Amino acid sequence: MIRNADVAIIGGGPAGLAAAVECYEQGVKDVVIIERDVKLGGILQQCIHNGFGLHMFKEELTGPEYAQRYIDKVERYGIESLLDTMVLEITPEKLVYAINPRKGLVCIRAKAVILCMGCRERTRHNLKIPGTRPAGVYTAGMVQRLTNLEGFMPGKEIVVLGSGDIGLIMARRLMFEGATIKGVYELMPYSTGLQRNIHQCLEDFDIPLWFNHTVINIHGRDRLTGVTVVEVDENRNVIKGSERRVDCDTLLLSVGLIPENEVATVAGVQLDAVTGGPVVDAARQTNVPGVFAAGNTLHVHDLVDYVSEEAEIAARGAVQYVRGEALDTAGDIQVSAGKGVRYIVPQVVNAGQESELYFRPDDVYRDGELKLCAGDEVIFKKKFIRLTPGEMERIRLNTRLLDKAGGRALSLRCV
To answer: Which domains, ranges and CATH numbers included, belong to the chain?
Structure first.
């Protein structure tokens, strides 16, 4: 049986919830959310720390509180949610095939699809860390789920590899529960997490942070007994003689996220080589007409408020598409990352529509200048005190700048 819908949203996390609510409030009410978990909320359900909602709601909330604001609206609007349902395939014709333990194979024919699948964590195997295979090696998100939702402590003596935000937050959380944090070791010479988390989670609790360090071996048979830590040079090569063993019973990996886009590629969606997410225009539409993307499936965000903000943009684009009001692509302008910028989203903007450009630098820069260039002409300059890859930045591409661009390709540079 095929169920027709105006908009199918893949994922019921913060992006999917915000997109569903925005579609409904824009007047497109035949919306269905497909979520593989047994409840809505996504990763927010296990993020019991505060710091959410400062931009969207002008108050500080925990993750579950933030998610519940949207879940309440979804339920009040009567938006359909297919829970415990795994999407198997999305076709270029926007047929969504999914499987559900009660309904079996489900097929939804949608006029528009919004991809909100989020990310998965990098594991030990992605990093190719050698050694034995004992119990006690976890990703940061798994430890967060075990501790906050299941009520289990993963261990008592913890080493954290990587300085991603969840790793920093869980170092503090596990210390609260009585664990000893032996240290946080980061391969890069800078943190990959927010500066506020460095201060609030590590420095305030005297948890040591070691830059230019990594783990090169894992010890233990049935249970982890220790790891070998080394220092690396500026080219991230091991400095011989710097090896030392750190005894521990748990290794927590906070080494980055990978956008979930396997079903997107089957539908023919083009992915960005740097972000791992789809290439999109200002309305967050991919190269497949009627397929949009938002949240961490598009690019990794620091703040959930920005995820919701971007999901609303994608939802408004989907609503336009459903109504046959899609933007004229004749005015498309290519946007690229120039010197000092790792990536920029969206990769395409429209000459007649203001846009927010999200970007990350490729290194730590201090006392420099951002330059937005149309061809060889600089049309915008902005001085900065500090930029770091661990924090996403934004630039408003307003009508004045679009007029200056005159339809020329844009590039953003950090000098």
So the answer is: 1-120+257-325 (3.50.50.60), 123-255 (3.50.50.60), 332-415 (2.60.40)
219-222 long-range contacts, CB within 8 A, separation 24+:
219/131, 219/132, 219/134, 219/245, 220/132, 220/134, 220/136, 221/132, 221/134, 222/134, 222/135
Helices (H), strands (E): how many in the chain? 9, 27
Least confident of 34-38, 71-75, 142-146, 364-368: 364-368
Q: Which two tokens stand for residue 49?
A: 């720390």
Closest CA to 318 of 106, 112, 158: 112
Cα angle vertex 27, ends 21, 33, to 5°? 40
Residues 201 and 184: beta-carbon distance below 8 Å: no
pLDDT in tens, 102-153: 999 999 999 999 999 999 999 999 999 999 999 999 999 999 999 999 999 9
The pTM assigned to this predicted structure is 0.94
